[in-house]
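Q: I'm writing a short explainer about Iron-sulfur cluster carrier protein for a general audience and would like to include a description of its predicted shape. Could you first generate the structure from this sequence?
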Amino acid sequence: KAGAAEVRLGMTAERKARQIIAVGSGKGGVGKSTLSANLAVAMARLGRKVGLVDADIYGPSQPRLLSTEGRRPEAEGNKMIPVPSPYGVPMLSMGHLVEPGQAIAWRGPMAGKALEQLIDAHWGETEIIVVDLPPGTGDVQLSMLAKHKPAGAVIVSTPQDLALMDATRAIGLFEQAKVPLVGMVENMAGYICPHCGEESDPFGNGGAEAAARTMGLPFLGRIPLDLSIRQDSDAGNPPAAGDGPQAEAFASIARGVLA
Ligand code: ADP
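A: Of course. Here's the predicted structure. Afterward I'll give you a sentence or two in plain language.
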């Protein structure tokens, strides 16, 4: 009996030491998954033991982004063992449990249970788990935040007014769940033309930074709209793992989150 208590205490200590960083957005398509993957990779490059949970259970994209598509997590006891990715970031995604492209149409409670298993896995020495939340501000998000109490949340927005209004709703979600806001990232700000290199602003520029300032949130950095980000992401090569200018942009955001 004493032995079992020790094991439990050990696990509690392990869980206490581990922190969850949630990445959220008010709506889909703003680059939340891209940021989550690259933030995790950038933190790992900075020497932290980082894991990634793809909580976007209705549209999991992390296996593609970190080249673990088709992999199945092993289990020990009744818990999953995270899948190692080539970028030093162990990870778990619903995408690892269903066939690629298979639609996942679950009701809230089941979705919540599935997410539970991804977070409550054998994370071993992992110190920080980056959680790519589903877009929006529904029940799955709220119950996850209430249950796992992330140490902090990062909000992603594009510079468009509409996306920013959605971001404001996401901020409300984290405040309601009493999750401290680490800051805001502006994605798809400034378009670098692949032909002439000229920079333009299809979605405006600086909107998220101004909004962050108005709301008293730290501004963590800006990622331009860059064709190479989409191409590399689709090919399973996270830009944060490379040596281009985007790797430094993600590293700078990672340093801001860790500070
Ligand atoms: P979300 O998780 O918010 O739905 P994703 O991260 O899946 O958004 O991004 C949506 C699409 O936009 C993906 O095809 C992704 O590769 C692309 N994308 C994201 N950020 C950028 C960027 N800064 N430049 C170019 N393409 C991007």
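A: For your explainer, you could say: The beta strands are 19-24, 50-54, 74-76, 79-81, 91-93, 128-132, 152-157, 181-192, 199-200, 219-225.
Q: Perfect, that's easy to follow.
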